[in-house]
Amino acid sequence: MKFGVENRKGCPRERGNALTKKSKRGSVRWIREGSLIFVKWMDKHEVSVCSTIHPAFSGETVSGRVRAAEWSWAVRKIPCPTPIVAYNKNMGGVDLSDQLIQYYSSKRKTSH
């Protein structure tokens, strides 16, 4: 599974059914080419993933805050593609590790 696949070689460039900035939160578009599935999902911003092991969508939802009135928010269930649910479930430790490495890495200057 890969994030940010839009500019990669072999990624479909079809725009007939593409998401736009005005697409509703939770909108999903996908294209299957052989064993690969390319998924685009609209959250606050467009999210793109590529996977060989997941179906595009199997009914999962995530909780998201949406504006209910001018000054209030409501929590609503938003449809979410299966590859993104799997990423969020399994990649938290890697992201945390990358974050901690940034805090504790030291830069050493040497002179020869």
UniProtKB/TrEMBL annotation:
Pfam families: DDE_Tnp_1_7. Residues 1-16 have a biased composition (Basic and acidic residues). Residues 6-111 form the PiggyBac transposable element-derived protein domain. Residues 1-22 are annotated as: Disordered. It comes from the Eukaryota. PANTHER family: PIGGYBAC TRANSPOSABLE ELEMENT-DERIVED PROTEIN 4. This is PiggyBac transposable element-derived protein domain-containing protein. It comes from Gambusia affinis (Western mosquitofish). The lineage of its organism: Eukaryota, Metazoa, Chordata, Craniata, Vertebrata.
